[in-house]
Amino acid sequence: MDEANGSSLLLFIIYFPKASNWVPPADIKEQPSYRTALIVTFIAVVYSAALAVATIAIGAVAPEYLQAYANSLGIFAAILTSIQYFPQLWTTWKLGRVGSISIPMMCIQTPGGFLWAASLAARLGWAGWSAWALYLITATMQGVLLIMGIVFELQHRRRKRAGLVPESETTSVSGDTISEEIEGPQETSPLLNDRTTKK
């Protein structure tokens, strides 16, 4: 588990909404429990530890298989990286707004991802594709989300200037949330529909 993912996991546990201080929106029947969050964290830590042990074992016993092992992990990571963006892309598309996604942050992060991927590719070449392909895919997904967000934000501002947007609806750039009067998915809507949401 790298430092960024470890930090995200720690923040996930710290800021996971507790039943005592958070009321779920009306469209959510049941909020996942803090126990569920701890189980997810435990699984992630065990998985990371298992990968570390497997890497050390392969390096010690059969180092000639390390490149194939790295490539297989690279493919697996690329698939998971792609999948993790689909719920956010779909929700943003259905919402037609960026919500709490920071466009300025994405403007910095997206080019940075491409630069980092290019830097790794220049140093490692095609032999190290399993290292830089992951960053390339991530940056591409972020780029799609960024373009979608910019287009939606410009459309929203154009409608607002034309007087087609209710005063109760605010832009995400100001940090405000979307009014509950708006039908359809909202910022508090889950990214994935499951048994806890109304169909």
Automatic annotation (TrEMBL):
Instruction: Indicate the transmembrane segments per the record.
Output: 37-62, 68-86, 98-117, 129-152
Q: What is its main location?
A: membrane
By its UniProt entry, which Pfam families does this protein fall under?
Answer: PQ-loop
Domain of life from the UniProt record: Eukaryota
Question: Is the Transmembrane helix keyword given for this protein?
Answer: yes
GO CC annotation: membrane
Keyword hit for Isomerase: no
List where in the cell it is found: Membrane
List keywords of the entry alphabetically.
Membrane, Transmembrane, Transmembrane helix
Q: Where is the composition biased (Polar residues)?
A: 168-177
Q: How does it sit in the membrane?
A: Multi-pass membrane protein
InterPro entries linked to this entry: LAAT-1, PQ-loop_rpt
What span is annotated as the signal peptide, if there is one?
Answer: none
Q: Where is this region: Disordered?
A: 163-199
Quote the protein name from its UniProt record.
PQ loop repeat protein
